[in-house]
Amino acid sequence: MKYHQIDSNLFIKNRKNFTAQMKPNSIAVFNSNDIYPISADSTMPFEQHRDIFYLSGVDQEESVLLLFPDAPLAKHREILFLKETSEHIAIWEGEKLTKERALEVSGIKTVYWLQDLEKIFFEVMTQCETVYVNTNEHYRSNVETETREDRFTKWWKAKYPAHTVAKSNPILQRLRSVKDAIEIDLMQTACNITEKGFRRLLGFVKPGVWEYNIEAELLHEFINNRSKGFAYTPIIASGTNANVLHYIENNQQCKAGDLILMDVAAEYANYSSDLSRTIPVSGTYTKRQRAVYDAVLRVKNEATKMLVPGTIWADYHVEVGKIMTSELLGLGLLDKADVQKEDPEWPAYKKYLMHGTSHHIGLDTHDYGILTEPMQANMVFTVEPGIYIPDEGFGIRLEDDVIIQEKGDPFNLMANIPIEAEEIEELMNKSLA
Fold it and tell me: Which candidate, 80, 32, 85, 35, places its Cα nearest to that of 59?
């Protein structure tokens, strides 16, 4: 891996927190993701399943974690199963985890090769009553592919039909949504790498560059700083492309006078950052662009203050909607009649801001978190209001990642990334001079 080794105490603590919530005499099993094929002998780059990574730090394919806190044998209370490595595999595929290295990474002492899985699994299944299965219950999940986890669950259910089934996901949703100090440091690193990429762009963008040129500059900076690259598919939308919320073609030329909406950020050690900035191609915002920009920034600043312990996500978005409505009235995009006759299910402001303002972020860009439960300290959220005006040929979105604090305003992990219009213009025109 490109990233520095993570302190194994994080994973030891995560397992302890998870097993503390398991039923008596139960086991929980977590599988790595598959390596997905493209065609012929080509495959997509491997991405580890975030749950097994969260609980073990293991970042390679064909790995299985088994937790059995009430195991009669102490050595079977935490078990890793790994693909057996060899000199041959090392030559063709590179270094894989040895049993010794797996202990260093995860803090797990009992490591078997995968060939022993069925034998050991039979033993523990004769000793337990309940099996926790790891299903994907994220509110945005839309999985059409059968995963390695799915296949494993099918196999053991057919072989051991008398066992009770429980769910890992509700436990993980709550645990993963509240970040450890080590996790916050990793996310800060991802944000710092994103800052380097963004500052690089301010000295690069000018009329005539292509959206994909900007993407290439970012990727260069991210990889040079130990990131695998983008935390999610980059959006680099110049001109009216910004009004397509998930525009990812990045194939248009940037024209003088236009704005570029960039929703781009780096990952680090599988942790995401998530940034949006909107900058002027020519280095200066027009009067109208600036008015809309400042309105979005005011909404962002006010919304951020509401991210405190006890806040309910749905109520928060209602309040953000009221602030946005006021700004849209000031910009002349709405009038009082629009607001008076609005549909409560789709308020008038939704014509110009169609998406939510905040989501959890962590190991996934849209991270785990139960939205109906109150916000807690050390949860990390994005704050990303926008105004999109197809009739005027531009859209503006601004976004930072913030940590909820026990008291006071959230801590902004992206506080050092330029966002004020004057600073962006100054940095861009300094490079153009």
Answer: 32
